[in-house]
TrEMBL record:
GO molecular function: glycerophosphodiester phosphodiesterase activity
Protein's UniProt keywords contain Transport: no
SUPFAM superfamilies: PLC-like phosphodiesterases
Name of the gene: ugpQ
Name this polypeptide is given: Glycerophosphodiester phosphodiesterase
Length: 248
């Protein structure tokens, strides 16, 4: 099957990379203000099962909380500050729910890549709940969000819960030799690859089998051009003020 990439070729990583607190509405606003029409963000579940944006399992790096985020309810997470760690300008920035981000991106015609980032041990539940939430939240969207995950368990659960939502398999290091079988089994449109392990031969192999390739996280403009020339469909970048869609 030949998979078409319907999304933009540049994707803002974690909303606005590093120039605003990652995975917050503030970051997604900054990415949007810089011309990005697609955002990647990481989603996991609160203790009471609400999909929220957060990269790490634990709270210390990106908030004033402590310990596992999965031990706190949405109400408890909402009492924390997810912006002050970045800079005082963002003090008080709350953790966003997937619902609040859906509302913003839909209102601003911005597409989404929802990276399902389960807390360890919660892979299937997270895949299922995030996919069901995305299906409902984006029911009226012109393009559905792309779901991706390093967790094949999460992707399989997402596929069962919401088979119509497109999926991509994230690969952390070297692509496993059986990547075609994995994509086929999970019904994925393609691979989202780590730039450090991407070769032209791999890109050509994936594209020639009819699958898509997106590469993270590329912060050098020359490398962005090279990867697109090789046939990559999309690039994730942190450099939202310098590697802008209007400079491609
Ligand atoms: O989805 C691409 C990229 O975000 C994967 O790595 O650690 O930044 O979530 P990470
Ligand atoms: Mg991510």
């Amino acid at each position: 099957m030949n998979h078409h990439w319907p999304y933009p070729a540049l994707i803002a990583h974690r909303g606005a990379g590093k120039i605003a607190p990652e995975n917050t509405l503030a970051a997604i606003r900054v990415g949007t203000q810089n011309g990005f029409r697609m955002m990647e963000y990481d989603v996991k579940l609160s203790r009471d099962g609400v999909p929220v944006l957060l990269h790490d399992d634990t709270l210390e790096r990106t908030s004033n909380g402590q310990g596992l985020a999965s031990r706190l309810t949405l109400a408890e997470l909402s009492a924390l500050d997810f912006g002050a760690w970045h800079s005082s300008a963002y003090a008080g920035e709350p953790i966003p729910t997937l619902g609040s981000i859906a509302a913003f991106t839909l209102a601003n015609q911005v597409h989404s890549n929802i990276e399902i980032k389960p807390t360890t041990g919660h892979e299937a539940e997270t895949g299922r709940q995030v996919a069901l939430a995305a299906l409902a939240l984006w029911a009226q969207a012109s393009l559905p969000p792309l779901l991706s995950s390093f967790s094949e368990v999460a992707l399989e659960a997402a596929q069962q819960a919401a088979p119509t939502l497109p999926r991509a398999l994230l690969i952390e290091e070297e692509a496993p030799v059986d990547w075609p079988e994995r994509l086929e089994r999970l019904g994925c449109m393609g691979l989202n690859l780590n730039d450090r392990f991407v070769s032209q031969a791999l890109v050509q192999a994936v594209r020639s089998k009819g699958y898509t390739v997106a590469v993270w996280t590329v912060n050098d403009a020359e490398r962005v051009r090279e990867l697109l020339d090789w046939g990559c469909n999309a690039i994730f970048t942190d450099k939202v003020t310098t590697i802008r869609p209007d400079t491609l």
